[in-house]
Write a structure and sequence with these properties.
With about 150 residues, this protein is α+β, with helices and mostly antiparallel strands. The protein has one domain (about 15-135): Glutaredoxin. The chain has six helices and four strands. It has a four-stranded mixed sheet, with helices on both faces.
Length: about 150
């Protein structure tokens, strides 16, 4: 695990506003697009922003955390300099948003190796299982304001 805010000293990561939580997600994945809409619905404080991994910043952050931006098997959340990924990110989202989001924390009943295994199976097959979608094309103006683009 990297130290909090370690991306600040990585010359490959462009400067960006990390004052609030940011979810880095595959904008071409239908499941991820649904997840982005879920974040939008759960986050009543409008704290979360969403950055497609296809952007320059998305690529750089994934590479910083040793993930492949060309075939992202993971999504991650950055908040207060810390990185949360896979189902742990889902549980963190639930804790951070509260309300109905607390139900997302149910994934924590599974041991971490099992959570990681389950997530990897779905992530590697996400296009075959759920198809492709375009998160950036979602028409909701409030959702569009959350998106970070190059």
């Amino acid at each position: 695990m990297k130290a909090p805010y370690s991306y600040h000293t990585d010359p490959a990561v462009p400067a960006f506003d990390d004052a609030g939580p940011i979810a880095f997600m595959d904008a071409d994945c239908a499941l991820c697009s649904h997840g982005a809409r879920m974040i939008h619905w759960l986050d009543r404080q409008d704290a979360f922003r969403i950055c497609p991994v296809q952007t320059q910043l998305g690529h750089a952050i994934l590479h910083h955390y040793n993930m492949s931006a060309e075939d992202p098997e993971s999504w991650l959340i950055l908040d207060q300099g810390r990185m949360y990924s896979d189902l742990d990110a889902l549980a963190y989202l639930g804790r951070r948003t509260g309300g109905w989001g607390h139900f997302l924390r149910i994934v924590l009943i599974f041991p971490k190796p099992l959570r990681d295994w389950m997530y990897t199976r779905v992530a590697r097959n996400r296009y075959a299982l759920f198809g492709r979608g375009d998160m950036c094309a979602l028409p909701d103006p409030a959702f569009q304001r959350r998106l970070m683009r190059d």
